């Protein structure tokens, strides 16, 4: 078993309207409650960070899967949407949908079309964030080949 620790520190003073600080090895951001949820919307927030983690993990996993499948000139442009719901008196992330637009060498587009569903599933299974939230958050992938 391989084990790796990811270290993050957070600091907060005050109540709901305050702004906190998040620091990781690379990441350094202000955090607050999103404006749409009654906060002041300064910096980022846990919900955006969750969707960002899922999106960045999935795109990296997808690129690795495509490379291992011998696709060349790989380029992926992806947007991801996290949909939160208020249910049973609490908020939760219900669904994260990834919209990857995949570009590969023009002579490989047909080959990619044939293998795409399998490769998308493999990338999802290789993504640590997908594996961590699966069962609690629905993960959907809506790809396009460019």
From TrEMBL:
Pfam families: OsmC. Signal peptide: none annotated. InterPro entries: KH_dom-like_a/b, OsmC-like_firmicutes, OsmC/Ohr_fam, OsmC/Ohrsf, OsmC_Ohr_Peroxiredoxin. PANTHER family: OSMC_OHR FAMILY PROTEIN, OSMOTICALLY INDUCIBLE FAMILY PROTEIN. This is SACOL1771 family peroxiredoxin. It comes from Staphylococcus gallinarum.
